């Protein structure tokens, strides 16, 4: 297990870039004061990783929050994603420029392909490789790529993705995919770690919360980190943002880690990457 020390801790990607293992997701945050406040609260709490996407329609707000923060730009790990309609080589280059313009940034720390659009994701990846070689992105990766998507991509392109961001929670572990990514030094990352609120309905997590004197959310987020999975819980509430970061004064036992693993049902909350209506 990699060391989980504090909120500013990182996992090292296979190109040597250090990516903070806890971040703030801003999906569904309004592109105005709501997202600006959330990011300011997160940065004040110690978060150094912000995850957005062009489809979230809040890149402008994210850029304003970063610009108006006291934290230097180089200390904040900023992530965005290319949406399905913008995939393909030339379109992706343009989409990246558009994202940077909205964010008012000169580079991104990580850029992801949001979904594996059949017939397009290989050309999209080649555009990401170019942007990476041009030093406009510090790391490149994918989101929602199953093993066969990754194998197909790696057969036809030069670079192995540095990150794969997947739906990940106690009901959807996909240990085989985690193992495959680990084998190829692809960093696994979780979206929807709280199962869109459904984790609060699981009695076993209630019991663990009582045992460790923590919240159910903190138990699940700590489980993510101890699994070596980067996680980006989303919230626009100050207290929740702070609470989600209070993960570094306890450690789940190996037995309790396995207990949470055993809840796996291969059950998705979000779309299936193999059957998503692109």
Automatic annotation (TrEMBL):
Transmembrane segments: none annotated. Keywords: NADP, Oxidoreductase. Gene3D superfamilies: NADP-dependent oxidoreductase domain. The keyword NADP applies. Pfam families: Aldo_ket_red. SUPFAM superfamilies: NAD(P)-linked oxidoreductase (SSF51430). The keyword Protein transport does not apply. PROSITE patterns: ALDOKETO_REDUCTASE_1, ALDOKETO_REDUCTASE_2, ALDOKETO_REDUCTASE_3. The lineage of its organism: Bacteria, Pseudomonadati, Bacteroidota, Flavobacteriia, Flavobacteriales. Residues 23-264 form the NADP-dependent oxidoreductase domain. InterPro entries: AKR (IPR020471), AKR5G (IPR044500), Aldo/ket_reductase_CS (IPR018170), NAD(P)_OxRdtase_dom_sf (IPR036812), NADP_OxRdtase_dom (IPR023210). This is Aldo/keto reductase. It comes from the Bacteria.
